[in-house]
């Protein structure tokens, strides 16, 4: 009799049934990809996809994943700004290199620009004394009509380095390029530029002994050519940025030839014609 009337296996728990994990993941995705959407807007988008949830259920899901409501969520829009302006954004930064001279080690400052959409890098200039007149001339070269490497860019990201003086910003602004200063202690907002500095130092400059400014320009030029046309990039589906066209096409036959730069520090492998 006890087994006959034991209904514990068929007991229904109080409340609504739990939302399926796939639907919950979809709610989180919609909220993160659309920072200005409120609960009702997300409910409507879900209904278009065949999922009918209440606004209260959507709110509970977002609270479980620590996602704030729309008014607060849309204030943290720096990442969204960068994502929506990738094709007109460039990053800029300085890095230093120690070069041997007759008087000992000398610090050189290298200013570069990187297009965020294509990852193309331009060396703006190299100097021992990054004074106002020098960096202003770099800005003129960058925005030169028809030849400047910032053509097509509307915004340039930079940190709070004092070397980015007022004259530099005004020269760029005269050609409709706005300098966007990043908040303090936020290197992730200029991550592509920081990552390129790490690459050029770890793969090239840290393995060389440099004598004079000319010996610094030569490896930088070679690394930029290697970076653009020969190096595979994990952030770009492990593909080369600007591969040189090969009229023979991709061949799976023939001997493999190694192209070396800087005495074998930079290597690129390709097949010879069979």
Task: Summarize the structure in words.
By secondary structure, this protein is an alpha/beta fold. Among the domains are: 16-77; 85-206, 2-Layer Sandwich (Nucleotidyltransferase, domain 5). The protein has helices at residues 21-33, 39-48, 55-64, 70-73, 78-84, 132-142, 166-173, 191-203, 212-229; strands at residues 89-101, 104-115, 121-127, 155-158, 178-181, 232-233, 239-240, 256-261, 266-271. The protein has a five-stranded mixed sheet, with helices on both faces. Strands 6-7 form a two-stranded antiparallel sheet. Strands 8-9 form a two-stranded antiparallel sheet. Strand 1 and strand 2 form a beta hairpin. Helix 2 crosses helix 3 (55-64) and helix 6 runs parallel beside helix 7 (166-173). The longest helix has 18 residues, at 212-229. The chain is elongated and about 100 Å long.
Main β sheet profile: 5 strands, mixed
Secondary-structure element series: HHHHHEEEHEHEHHEEEE
* Broad structural category: alpha/beta
CATH architecture title of the domain at 85-206 = 2-Layer Sandwich
Q: What is the CATH homology-level superfamily of the domain at 85-206?
A: Ribonuclease H-like superfamily/Ribonuclease H
So what's the overall shape? elongated
Average residue pLDDT: 86
Percent in helix:
25-40%
Name the beta content range: 15-25%
Gyration radius, rounded: 27 Å
Strand order of the largest sheet: 3-2-1-4-5
The count of DSSP E runs of length 2 or more, i.e. the number of strands, is 9
CATH topology group of the domain at 85-206: Nucleotidyltransferase, domain 5
First CA to last CA: what distance?
Answer: 85 Å
Uncertain runs are: none
* Total helical elements: 9
CATH class of the domain at 85-206: Alpha Beta
